[in-house]
Design goal:
alpha+beta, globular
């Protein structure tokens, strides 16, 4: 299964998503992950207050406040080691009926 990084292009582009995208392209090549990672543009992730937000699979993990400086560490952790990079991961919210 290929992990996917989705680029948020609505408001994140105002605060550097293009630079993050370019960093992903560079680091994917540097780490030789071309066969394991596919970059896809995706819809708004709804975290405009924490740009740049990206979603990474497997695991459907939402990362926020991602900068180009974070990309190598994120790929090493999530793709190479199979571990969520906790310092950038957005906790999953659970909603219960009646609340």
């Amino acid at each position: 299964m290929s992990p996917h990084a989705k680029k948020h292009v609505q408001s994140c582009h105002l605060v550097g998503s293009e630079a993050v995208w370019e960093a992903f392209e560079t680091e994917i090549n540097a780490l030789q992950l071309q066969d394991r990672v596919t970059l896809l543009e995706g819809p708004c992730q709804g975290y405009c207050q924490l740009p740049v937000a990206i979603r990474v699979n497997p695991g459907n993990v939402l990362y926020a406040q991602v900068t180009p400086a974070d990309v190598a560490e994120l790929l090493e952790s999530h793709v190479v080691k199979g571990e969520v990079l906790k310092r950038l991961a957005v906790p999953r919210m659970r909603f219960f009926p009646g609340f």
